Structures are given as C-alpha cells and as structure tokens.
C-alpha cells in the first residue's frame, strides 16, 4: 500500500460570491516533502491553504489531510498551521497561551526545546499585547509547532518579519523538514521558494500553472533587466554572472540578465555605486504572467 | 474545558476597566445615590430607598458584567485568536460555551459586592433567606444579558463592540430605571422603561425583596432570553467564529 499523502486535493474550488479564487485545483503532497505554493497576490494561495485547513467550505472538490477531513486531522493533532490572519488573545502572557494549546496534544513538543526552536526564549512571561510584530509571529510559530505535528501548513509565514527573522525562520523550517516533517508554505517570494522548497507549485488564477523543482521554475521566469546610472567605465559589465546583453545610453546602463539575483550580487559586491538602481520585468507579477502565457499556450 | 474556562476568567479578571465598571462603579453609585436620595426622604422611608437603590445597582453591575464578558468575543474574533484556535485541537464550540460560563461567573462578584455595600455601608435590612434569594434570582436572571452580549459580540466587529459595551450598559440602565426610579420618569418614558429587559430584571429583584414574587417579570425575561438566544444563533450561523471579517 502506498503511504497516505500528507495532503490531497481533488478539483478544489473556492468561490467568494461570483469570484472564483480556486478553480478546480488538484494537488498531492507526499509525507516529508517541502513544498512552496508560489504565486502573486490574489492567485488563490491563501484560499487554497485556508480551504485545506477547513476554515471555509469549498464550493467543490475535496481535501484530505493525512487521509482525513481537515477538521478531523487537526483535532487529531497531526496538523499545525500559521495563518495570515491568525492572532493571539489579549490580556494574557505568552506562556499561558502556549500552555493552553500544548495541553490539547497527546505528545506535545517538549517546551524547553519548542521555545528554542520557535525563537521565543525569554518571551514566556511577556504580555501578548506588548510583543513586537516579529515576536508575535514567532509565538504563532510556536503554537503551530506545539503538537510537533507531522504536517505544517504555513500561509505567508514571513510576511511580518524583517530580514534577520526571515533567515532564522527558514533555518528552523529546514531543520524541521530534515526531521521528516512535511512543510507546505504559501509565498510570493521566489527566493524563499528557491531556498527552502524541494518542490515549487506555481499557482495563478486559482490553478496550478507549474509544478517542479525550484531550478526548473526559475529557468522559466528568467530574462529581466537591471538599470542604473553609470558615468564610469563599463568594461566589466558583460562578464558579470547572468548578463546576456549590455545596453543603455551615455547616462544609464541596462543589463539584460538570465539570473537577476546573481548579477545583482556581483554588482553590489563591486566598487561601483548604483544610483537609481531599477530591476525591470523582475516583479513576480510579470514573471507569473509570463508563466501563465506559457501554460496557456500549452493548454 | 476547565483549562479554557480558567484561561478566559484570568483574562477578563485582569482587565481593570472591566472590574471598575462592573464592581467598583456600581458599589460607589450605591453609596452615592443612597446618600443623596436617602437624605431627602423622611427617616421612615430610608430603608425602602436604600434597598431599591441597592437592587438597581446590583442589576446595573450584573448587566455590565454579563455584557462586558461576552461582547469581548468580538475582540477575540477580530484579533484572529478564534481563527488561530480553529487550527489547534481546541474545539471552537467550547469557546462559545466557555464565554457563556465566564459571563455568568463574573456576574456574581458584581452582585455580591453591591449587596455587601448595601448591607454594611447603607444598612439595608433583610432576612438572610431574602439576601440569598435576591442574589440567586438576580444571578439566574443575568443569563438573559449573557445571551444579549453573545448576540452583540457575534454581530459586531471589534471597534463597534468596544463602543457597544459602554453604550448598551448605559442605555439599559438609564431607560430601564436603574439610575433614576421609573416613578420619577415623565409619563411618556414609562412605556419605554417597560420595554427594557433591565427594568424587568430589577423588578425581579424588587419582587424578591418585597416578598411578593410575581410571574410577569419572569415571563418578560424569558421572552427576552429567547429572542437574544435566537439572535445569537442566527449571528453565529451567518458568520462563523473563525471568520475574520465581513
């Protein structure tokens, strides 16, 4: 018998009034996978995650988490989640909230280790109302991990985090994935998907438009340009990583690149100042439009 | 469910504003109104004035406590806490049940403190059976306002709910004759007072204190209770607990 999928969706459809947010989505995630649901804002990622968690009833299709209906799987303690619109109660301490939730699990994550893993060391006695945005987010992570759930569903978990918090968050996620937890997260940051996920599912207009490794997805959204004002010498520019063409005029340089990140890294590491730096065609919205066009052509 | 109940009780208990409006303020009003009005009536009428004032303030405190404890549901919804709970094994239905219990439990301190002030500061004289019956009946009757608060908390978003806690308590107290006895109302306002559940709630207490229980206040309160319960059920169905807005 094949193992029960961590998550299984068949023809999932979510409607808000006349708007179709998720349009017959099929998705199967095996235990132990780390999957990014990548898509621009409004693509239907949150609706997909929320429907997976049973937060609203889909208009059609079916969702199973670890082989059970979402509410049942959550009650059984096998699922942890960070929501985009999740929150904490007022007028209490972090430790009280954590204790309330931990008690509901048969095998809760040992508290000393949970506190370190979620990065809320020293916050247990803190009043919830006095937490910073990043601290709140880490407490929400601790709640999601409280039951040491085999399946984690995270809806744009780093949205409220600064760069440092983001890095430590993803380090935690990587170590969880390494310990065999299934991690599914929605994001609109290509870099996050790239760095963490071993599988990237691109969602647009409520459908899966691409599904594969991060590298294979990245290669499909390449070809963008970097512009900045440049009065000095330009000989080194064609040799920068990723650069496929150098253009522009007397005042401005325009680099066409197949790997914006690598090119930018090289530029930033160099001695040149980069006034009026612009990355064009690099917004994910545009990249995704590009993907949708392609899949449209394939269809 | 005990842990959730204790958790919620602790949260409300820490809210100083809540304790001020539901315990301290009614107690201070009891002293103040009794001194002001009691000083203007013949000595023979003092007992009646002091008792009536105390019962009105017990009702006022209890209504505030019941509404305050339950309308807070709107805050927990708006903050996303109820949604968060929905993705843990804590049963969401238990949250509603616990809020009812918390509302009911927190009514008791309001009733007892005002009664103690009435007895020991203002010198209200009742037999011990009457004292017990008074507190018990007002405690039981407060469930109507727990239902009212739940319906309001389920219907409103956090901002409106915050305002509603103050406004509803004030309107129910003022129009229901808890601050100024209905006998002092102009004729046109008496009908309005009789349409207020707060009037019948205080009437329930006055009947017990006078030793003349009657059916009408009980029927009126049951009627209001049913209406509020239906409203709460409809509101809960229209917008699930874990919905954030809209």
Q: Work out the radius of gyration of chain A.
A: 22 Å
Quick check: average pLDDT of chain B? 92
Distance between the termini of chain B: 29 Å
**Order of H and E elements of chain A:** EEEHEHEHHHEHEHEEHEEEHEH
Shape of chain B: elongated
- From the structure provided, what is the oligomeric state, counting identical versus distinct chains? heterodimer
In spatial order, strands of the major sheet of chain A run 5-6-7-3-8-9
Report the major sheet of chain B.
none
Roughly what is the average pLDDT of chain A, rounded to an integer?
A: 86
For this entry, give a set of tags.
heterodimer, A: 299 residues, alpha/beta, 4-stranded antiparallel beta sheet, 10 helices, globular, B: mainly alpha, 12 helices
Q: How would you explain this protein's 3D organization?
A:
The complex is a heterodimer of chains A (299) and B (246). With 299 residues, chain A is α/β, with parallel strands linked by helices. Chain A contains ten helices and 13 strands. In chain A, a hairpin with a 2-residue loop joins strand 8 and strand 9. The C terminus of chain A is likely disordered. Chain B has one domain. Chain B is built from twelve helices and no strands. The chains are: A alpha/beta (299), B mainly alpha (246).
Summarize it.
The complex is a heterodimer of chains A (299) and B (246). Chain A has 299 residues and is an alpha/beta fold.
Q: Helix and strand layout, with pairings?
A:
The complex is a heterodimer of chains A (299) and B (246).
Chain A: E1 7-16, E2 19-29, E3 34-38, H1 45-52, E4 60-65, H2 70-75, E5 79-82, H3 94-102, H4 111-118, H5 133-145, E6 151-155, H6 163-178, E7 182-187, H7 190-196, E8 199-204, E9 207-212, H8 214-218, E10 224-229, E11 243-248, E12 252-257, H9 260-269, E13 278-280, H10 284-298
Parallel strand pairs in A: 3-7, 3-8, 5-6, 6-7
Antiparallel strand pairs in A: 1-2, 1-4, 8-9, 10-12, 10-13, 11-12
Helix pairs in contact in A: 4-5
Chain B: H1 2-13, H2 16-38, H3 46-71, H4 73-78, H5 81-86, H6 92-120, H7 128-141, H8 143-155, H9 158-175, H10 187-194, H11 197-210, H12 215-238
């Amino acid at each position: 018998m094949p193992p029960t999928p961590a998550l299984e969706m068949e023809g999932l459809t979510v409607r808000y009034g006349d708007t179709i947010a998720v349009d017959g989505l099929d998705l199967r995630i095996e235990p132990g996978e780390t999957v990014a649901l990548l898509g621009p804002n409004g693509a239907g990622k949150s609706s997909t995650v929320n429907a997976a968690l049973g937060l609203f009833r889909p208009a059609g299709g079916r969702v199973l988490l670890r082989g059970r209906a979402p509410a049942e799987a959550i009650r059984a303690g096998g699922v942890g989640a960070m929501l985009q619109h999740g929150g904490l109660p007022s007028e209490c301490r972090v430790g009280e909230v954590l204790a309330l939730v931990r008690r509901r699990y048969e095998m809760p994550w040992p508290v000393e280790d949970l506190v370190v893993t979620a990065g809320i060391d020293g916050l247990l006695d803190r009043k919830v109302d006095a937490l910073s945005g990043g601290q709140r987010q880490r407490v929400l992570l601790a709640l999601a991990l409280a039951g040491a759930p085999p399946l984690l569903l995270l809806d744009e978990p780093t949205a409220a985090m600064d760069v440092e918090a983001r890095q430590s968050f993803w380090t935690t996620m990587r170590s969880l994935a390494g310990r065999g937890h299934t991690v599914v997260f929605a994001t609109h940051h290509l870099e996050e998907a790239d760095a963490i996920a071993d599988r990237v599912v691109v969602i647009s207009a409520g459908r899966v438009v691409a599904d594969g490794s991060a590298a294979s997805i990245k290669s499909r959204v390449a070809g963008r340009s970097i512009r900045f004002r440049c009065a000095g010498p330009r000989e080194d520019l064609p040799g920068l990583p990723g650069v496929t063409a150098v253009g522009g005029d007397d005042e401005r340089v325009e680099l066409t690149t197949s790997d914006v990140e690598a090119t930018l890294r090289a530029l930033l590491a160099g001695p040149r100042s980069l006034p009026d730096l612009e990355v064009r065609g690099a917004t994910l919205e545009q990249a995704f439009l590009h993907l949708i066009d392609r899949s449209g052509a394939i269809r | 469910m005990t842990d959730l109940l204790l958790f919620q009780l602790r949260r409300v208990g820490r809210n100083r504003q809540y304790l001020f409006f539901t315990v301290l303020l009614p107690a201070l009003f009891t002293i103040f109104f009794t001194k002001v009005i009691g000083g203007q009536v013949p000595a023979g009428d003092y007992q009646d004035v002091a008792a009536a004032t105390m019962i009105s303030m017990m009702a006022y405190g209890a209504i505030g406590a019941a509404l305050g404890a339950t309308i807070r549901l709107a805050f927990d919804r708006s903050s996303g806490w109820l949604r968060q709970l929905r993705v843990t094994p804590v049963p969401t239905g238990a949250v509603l049940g616990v809020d009812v219990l918390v509302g009911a439990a927190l009514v008791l301190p309001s009733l007892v403190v005002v009664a103690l002030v009435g007895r020991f500061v203002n010198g209200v004289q009742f037999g011990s059976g009457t004292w017990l019956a008074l507190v018990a009946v007002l405690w039981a009757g407060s469930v109507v306002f727990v239902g009212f608060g739940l319906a309001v908390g389920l219907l409103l978003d956090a901002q409106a709910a915050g305002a509603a806690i103050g406004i509803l308590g004030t309107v129910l107290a003022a129009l229901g004759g808890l601050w100024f006895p209905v006998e002092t109302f102009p004729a046109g306002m008496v009908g309005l007072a009789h349409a207020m559940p707060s009037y019948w709630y205080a009437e329930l207490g006055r009947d017990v204190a006078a030793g003349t229980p009657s059916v009408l206040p009980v029927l009126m309160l049951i009627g209001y209770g049913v209406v509020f319960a239906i409203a709460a059920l409809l509101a809960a169905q229209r917008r699930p607990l874990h919905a954030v807005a809209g």
